[in-house]
Amino acid sequence: MADPRILLVIGGGIAAYKSCELVRLIRKGGGSVACVLTEGGSHFVTAMTLAALSENPVHTTLWDLKNEVEMGHIQLSRAADLVVVCPATADLMAKMAAGIADDLATTLLLATDKPVLAVPAMNVRMWQHPATRRNVATLRASGVTVMEPDEGAMACGEFGPGRLPEPEAVWAEIGAALATHGHSQPLEGQPDFAPERHRPLFGKHVLITAGPTHEPIDPVRYIANRSSGKQGFAIAAAAAEAGARVTLVAGPVHLPTPPGVDRVDVETARQMAAAVEAALPADVAVMVAAVADWRAAEEAGQKLKKDGSGKVPPLHLAENPDILAALAQSPQRPRLLVGFAAETERVIDHATAKRARKGADWIVANDVSGDVMGGHANAVHIITASGTESLPEMPKEDVARALVERIADAFA
Ligand code: C5P
Question: Domain check: are 227 and 156 in the same one?
Answer without folding.
Answer: no
